[in-house]
Each structure stands twice: as C-alpha cells, then as structure tokens.
Amino acid sequence: MLLTSTSNNMNTDTLSELLNQKEILVFIRQLTHLVNKLNYSQLQHEQWSYYYNLGMTEGIWTGRVSKKMAEANSMCYSYGRSKVLTKQRLKKYKQQCPQIQETINQHTKQIPHDIDMTLVTNVINNLIHKDQHQLRLELDRRKTMPRLDAEEHKLVDQFYTLKPRQTEINSAKIIWKALYDQQAILHELAIFKKWVQLHMPESSCTLHHIQLTNINHIFTSLAFHDQTLSTQQMAQQTITRAGEIAKTYTNIVTAEKNKLQLTRTDHKNLQLLDQIVNIILIREHNMQQRSACELERKLSMIFNEAAVESKDD
Fold first, then answer.
1. Alpha carbon separation from 65 to 75, 118, 150 (Å, rounded)
2. 119 and 212 both lie in a single domain
3. DSSP label at 263?
4. Which range has the worst mean pLDDT, 4-8, 114-118, 181-185, 282-286?
5. Domain-located, residue 91
6. DSSP H stretches of helix in the chain
7. Range ranked top by mean pLDDT from 27-36, 217-226, 296-305
8. Burial grade of 202 (CB within 10 A; 0-12, 13-18, 19 or more)
9. Residue 33 structural domain
C-alpha cells in the first residue's frame, strides 16, 4: 500500500529500495502507525469539540422519546451525546494528541541513515489520507445529523404542545409516514441507478450484497412474470415502477394537506390551525434535509471503492 501511495515511478523505485531493508521497513511501519493514530485522535478531538460547542451554544446535547412515540411519528427515538460523555471524550483526545506527537518526535530521532524523510513522510500522509477518507465523510455527516435530529424532536414536541385535534394528529402522522416511506424508496432508487450505471455491463453482477428491499422485490417480480425481458429492460422498468411508488406517497401527502385545509370552514381557531399546518410543513422540510444527508452517506459508503478506483485511473 505504501508503494501505491507514491506520485511517480522514481519515488516508487526509491521507496521500494528502502522497504527492502529490514531496519528501514520496521521504522516506516512504526512511523505509519503513529501518524495514523495521531490523525485519528486529531479528527476525534475536532469532532468532540464540535459537539461540545454545539451543546454550549445551541443547547443540543442528547434527547430521547419512547420507541412507540418515535414509530408513531416516523422519527428517530434518540439523538446526540450527553454533556458528561462529550466532556470526557474531548478531554481524552485533547490529552492524546500531544502525547502521540511527542512519541513521533522521539521515534524520528531514531531515523536510519540515508533515508529521504520528505519522501517517506509524503507517502505516509498520502496513504493515511486515503485510508481515512471514509472516516472523514462519516464524521462530517455526524456533525450535521444532531442538529437535524434535535429539530425533529423539537418540531414534534411543538406540534403536540399546540393540542391539535385527533383528526389533525392523524393527518400529521399520515403525512410524516408517507414522507418517511417515500424517502426510503427514493434512497433505494438512487442507489439502484448508481449501481446500474457502474455495473450494468457486467451481467453476472447481482444486487444481493446491497440491501434494497423494495427494488429487489420489484426486480424479482419482473424477472418472474416476464422472462423475455433483458437485464437492461428489467432495470429500466424497475426504475420506472419505483418512481411511480414514490409518486403515490406524494399523492398521499397532498391529499392529507388538502384535508387539513378543508377543516378551515368549521375550525374555531384559524390561527391555531395555521400554526399546526406550518409545523407539519417545517418538519416535512427538515425530514427532506435529513434524508438527503443520509442518502449522501449511503452512496458514499456503498460506492466509495469504485470512486477511489476511478480517481486512481
């Protein structure tokens, strides 16, 4: 892996010669381990610093509702990190970073003769940067999610604080469930489209390693009922049908919104109704933002290897 991290053939040849020497090989391995550990600790320190600042400035620490409540309102039942845990982790990584750096400094004093440290350092940094790419993406996502999850809990709490009618509660739950299910099928559709783009030329490649429940059901049903279809035709029809399913959820949401508006004629407090509808709409937007963030993570995790290979080419 170290050899593949060099930028040109000359560097590769030079590094190859160095790695053939046992003393230098051991030195580089130990240095790589230490630098990797330092980078990881720095990333974690940055992450927990973010959580701490988020908690101190916006009051976002941790929150929880019952699983029954979460399921009924199509929301996550918990989010965030406690203040105690955040302070513990922040202290841990704050102490670790200088300790590891000092170990690196001591290790580099044992550098073997005739070794190009600039070359070795660049190669190690390139290797670690590639290796921790997925970790950085996941940590970035985790910076976004606490705020969105906290907003979910806040909006649902505000909704029930308004003491809506049972019919309004039912409509809100139907809207949020339809949006939740719609985002699930849209996630599968986006992943499947990407898979088709990357793998369709390879007819032997299957979808079994990717958990796409709805897509797999549609695809399998097409294959069973019409065996004359080519793989490409089944893929296209699967995409079309998945899109149609997503539209049915849009229709459900629209119908419930219209139903709420029809109650204006006999509602005694129109200002209250407007507040209720507004919270439902704000949560719809927040759910879409959260879903987009989650989809980005899924696409990155599933297709990261292909993306890295493409860049290397």
1. 9, 53, 11
2. no
3. G
4. 4-8
5. yes
6. 9-19, 22-58, 67-72, 83-108, 117-131, 133-161, 166-199, 213-225, 231-262, 270-312
7. 27-36
8. exposed
9. 1-75+82-144
Burial class (CB in 10 A: 0-12, 13-18, 19+), 20: exposed
Q: Torsions phi, psi of 80, nearest 5?
A: 75, -175
- Are 46 and 60 within 8 A, CB to CB? no
Average pLDDT, rounded, for the chain: 87
Both tokens of 117, joined, read: 């440290």
In contact, 143 and 50? CB cutoff 8 Å: yes
Report the 3 state secondary structure along 167-223.
HHHHHHHHHHHHHHHHHHHHHHHHHHHHHHHHHCCCCCCCCCCCCCHHHHHHHHHHH
Same domain, 6 and 89: yes
Residue 80, strand partner residues: 62
179, two tokens:
């949006």
Q: At which residue do the structure tokens 């080519």 appear? A: 230
Question: Is 290 in contact with 152 (CB distance < 8 Å)?
Answer: yes
* Dist CA 209 CA 298 (whole Å): 14
Helices 270-312 and 231-262: angle between axes, nearest 10 degrees: 160
What domain count does the chain have?
2
- 41-68: pLDDT as tens digits: 999 999 999 999 999 999 999 999 999 9
Q: pLDDT tens, 153-198? A: 999 999 999 999 999 999 999 999 999 999 999 999 999 999 888 8
Distance CA 233, CA 230 (A): 5
